Amino acid sequence: MDLILWRHADAEDGVDDLARPLTPKGIKQAKKVATWLREQLKDAAEYRVIASEAVRSQATAQQLRADFEINAKINPGCHNACYLEVARWPRDIGKFVVVVGHQPNLGEVAALLLTGKELEWNTRKGGIWWIQRKVMDDGRVKYVLKAALSPDLL
């Protein structure tokens, strides 16, 4: 299974946290990363895209795919386990899942999968963590960091 944790792009400030739209910079960030992801996922038979209820998360996801899922379980302030639950990690063997969400959860989930600890890893706005779960011939499971990047690197 491949899990891509994508932080929403740059968003406007606002009192209603779920209603904050992307800034013009955020739209550019989301488009850059989405273009790169589409190229990387072009050979994938299918992939799911899941966004929180936050407008900024949905606007980021929409740059990759119009038919994404919305799941309130990954709204800001949720538990880290919710990200793994909505992605069906690691049950969807052979699948690709993109989860568009928020800090500090994304960095902590990436750290948990790669180190076994929920460390405070930062994820830049519009950035991704691409983590692959591989089962070896002898049955051992390995977690591989396939990519970690931010829009300014593209």
Question: What report would you give on this structure?
Answer:
With 154 residues, the chain is α/β, with parallel strands linked by helices. The protein has a single domain (2-153), classed as Rossmann fold (3-Layer(aba) Sandwich), CATH 3.40.50.1240. 29% of the residues lie in helices and 23% in strands. The protein is built from four helices and six strands. It is globular and about 50 Å long. It comes from Deefgea tanakiae. This is Histidine phosphatase family protein.
Q: Main beta sheet, described?
A: 6 strands, mixed
Under CATH, the topology is which? Answer: Rossmann fold
The share of residues in helices is: 25-40%
Structure classification: alpha/beta
Strand order of the largest sheet: 3-2-4-1-5-6
Sketch the topology as an H/E string, one letter per element. Answer: EHEHEHEHEE
According to DSSP, the number of beta strands is 6
Shape: globular
**What's the level 1 CATH class?**
Alpha Beta
Total of DSSP H or I helical runs spanning 4+ residues: 4
User: How many whole angstroms does the radius of gyration measure?
Assistant: 15 Å
- Classify the beta-strand content into a percent band: 15-25%
CATH superfamily: Phosphoglycerate mutase-like
**Quick check: average pLDDT?**
95
Unreliable parts:
none
How far apart the termini lie comes to 24 Å
Number of domains: 1
